[in-house]
Amino acid sequence: MKRLLRILLPLVLCLNVSGCGMKDIDKRFYVVTTGVDLTDNPEKPYRISLRLAITSAQVESGSSRTEIETIDAPSIAEGVRHLKSHVDKELEFGHCRIFVLGKSLLRTASPETMSFFSRRRDIQMISVFAVGEPDALSVLKVSPKSERYPGNALFLSFGNEGTESPYTITTYLFDLVRKAYERGIDPILPVIKAEGRTYVIDQAVVLNKKGTGLLLTPKETQLYKMTTSRSAKAEVVLPLDEQARVVLTVSQLRTKIGIDRGTVPTVRMKVRVSGILEESPPGLLERDWHGLERRMEESLSGQIEDLLIKIRNSGTDPYGFGLKYLSQYFGKEKDYKYWQSVYPEVKFKVESDIHIKGPGVIR
Amino acid sequence: MIEQVRSRFGDAKDLVSEVMDNGYARLELCFFPAMCDVDQIKDAILVPFSYRFDPDEFRRMLKTGLTFLKSDEPKKWPELLLKGCVLLQYEDKVYSFLAIRKMQKAPGDTEVEASLQGPQSAFTEDLDMNMNLVRLRYNSPNLNAELMEKGEISRTRIMILFDREKVDRTSLDELRKRLESIKPQLIQASGQLAMYIGNARFSMFPITLQTERPDRVAQLLQRGKIAVLVDGSRFAITLPVRFFDFMHAMDDDYEPFWMGRIIILFRYLGMVLSMTLPALYIAACSYNPEFFRVQLAFSIDGSRAAVPYPSFVEVFIMLFMIEALIEASIRLPRFVGSTAATVGGLILGQAAQQAGLVSSIMIIVTSVVAISNFVIPNSSFSYSIRALKYVFVLVATFYGMVGIIVTLFLIVVYLCHLRSFGQPYLAVNMQKDQQKREQSR
């Protein structure tokens, strides 16, 4: 009897540690996309919208059904708590991988208000953050025709799971949190535009620590993605005269960044690109292979330098030059202050090395 | 003699007792015709005694014949008769003649441990035949055989076999001690004996391995293990064994190396799946739905929408159904067996899902559990796994994913603690350890 008690007692005590309560999968309402916008009402500044999945056993193309719930609240946590009374099942963020922040929100919100996302246990750190244009709610309202699972179209758009677009930048929550608090590096968020029944994700916003940011054009977004990730699915374009264009598809890409110390630091960036020509006027490559490479190198270096200067002038630092500087030169508080003071005058030296492998497949 | 025997057996009607007189001499004869081979009695006793009678030769035959033994003690007579001997009294001396009727004349076919390319012969229910099968495969003078009788009523003959040079002495002593200490009434199957000598009757895992394959016994003997053959049972008990021996099928040694390894890997995978899958289903469904990919989560969500009960009730319903089905197909006569499978598998599975009693994913889980349980080569081990599954289900119901991980850990701890006749059950580097010990000796 005593022995039985000795076994049973720990088991009964263990009932307290079972963590999240038992709630069956069909008693949970899956949030697939969360949107946060700013309202005009100063008492309830946040408009929280949740896109909820309505699941069914049969799966067909275009059969995805969702429901959108919206509420205005003084804070995000309160809003989500209040929204629970609008639905019949327990809200579950475990599969919510896309968080859309309204464009208006970026101007005012500080990282502290956003900490809700990183603090909640059921929001996964690999969820993707993006900026919604014109606002988050209208992005949520889009329901693409090809979508099989609720919310799946956006899941596939980011990362390398579905499309691998050179224009789409993916920012995960863990990365965003890190960049929001780390000095010398600034977060960058992709912009989702709602266009009819589809999404267009080809731009990005660079934020500084206060929230205001710099909107990059699609062209610049691609350049940024090329130079930061090793994403090979990109292209280098050299416009020739008479409307002809030379397009190089990148198959290998490598970027090196170094910072020279001096009264004014110089950022050196080396980009090595190799690939094949996808489009070019006939006979061009055979006439002057190396000349073409050189011309493309010059054009690419110019484009990248322009981008870097544009970013520098806006006072943001998505590449993390500041962090790189600090790490290279044992940065203390004083060094960072110095870096901040000279950053607006930092010089850039971009060298690119393009290697054309050939004109593509011969048939 | 006849009166003495008759009175001991209470005038049993199936006892034949005869006094024969051929004109020259008298012969008293008694035996159980049901237990004796009558042809042998005729050839060995009746023919020489009747029409080829020669007193000198007959006496010589009784004295020198291999099968004739002098038995003067009246106390032993009933025992001899019950074993299938013929008792004969000639010139005031009592002899016993062994004429046991043998049912088995040929080795059996493997039924439980079938093999594709290995030997197809299996042990029979006759100890002598089994000895023949083992000796044939383990043709070495080192093979020791010790005969014993166990069971107050059944008096079952038991043969302990081991290789004198390779055997682990401590295990052998342990086995002898345990065999001496037990006092069973009836021993009808080797499994029964295994349970008596197993010491831990409530152990979750079998600590002796039962096999019907002579080739496996030979292999284990060669590895220094002990085999116990029980008369009247198709299975030999081998000990001491390790966890890994149960997952080993004889085919692994007969197939090409890599094929065998891959199949062993699948077998372990099957074991783990069959043990944990229902529990994982509960844990993932009720506690950690973010565990799945989103597509799977949504389709489980969709298919579970019609199910009225929580996931653990669903699991219990399906597991009960599959266990009942397995049990029914073992116990039913072979002709009805296939009907049970058809009714159970096709109709219940499909109908239960359409009726909204269980989700379609649960049907897959159940069938994976059932099929992968059959992958385990040893039946008593697969019983253990079948039982452990419920421990996991219970734990998952209350503690979710954390509970499953902790239970898995506890089972490993338990396996480490378990000993099979003095040898560790979960010894991974057994061979290396033994080599080291021998070197240091």
Describe the structure.
The complex is a heterodimer of chains A (363) and B (441). By secondary structure, chain A is an alpha/beta fold. Chain A has helices spanning 2-14, 76-83, 103-108, 111-119, 136-141, 152-157, 173-181, 218-228, 284-287, 289-313, 321-328, 333-342, and strands spanning 28-38, 46-54, 65-73, 90-92, 98-102, 128-133, 188-195, 198-207, 213-216, 235-239, 245-260, 266-279, 347-358. Chain A folds into two domains: 25-216; 217-363, GMP Synthetase, Chain A, domain 3, CATH 3.30.300. Chain A is built from twelve helices and 13 strands. In chain A, helix 4 packs antiparallel against helix 7 (173-181). The model of chain A has no long low-confidence stretch (mean pLDDT 85). Chain B has three domains: 2-98, no CATH class; 108-241, no CATH class; 254-424, no CATH class. Chain B has helices at residues 2-8, 38-49, 55-64, 77-83, 127-137, 169-181, 190-197, 214-222, 243-246, 251-254, 257-287, 294-304, 311-331, 334-354, 360-373, 379-417, 430-440; strands at 16-21, 26-31, 68-70, 85-90, 93-98, 108-109, 121-122, 143-150, 156-163, 209-211, 226-230, 236-239, 419-420, 423-424. In chain B, helix 5 (127-137) crosses helix 8, helix 11 packs across helix 13 (311-331) and helix 11 (257-287) packs across helix 16. Chain B starts with a helix and ends with a helix. Chains A and B meet through strand 1 of A and helix 11, helix 12 and helix 16 of B. Chain B: Keywords: Membrane, Transmembrane, Transmembrane helix. Chain B: It comes from Cohnella thailandensis. Chain B: Belongs to the GerABKA family.
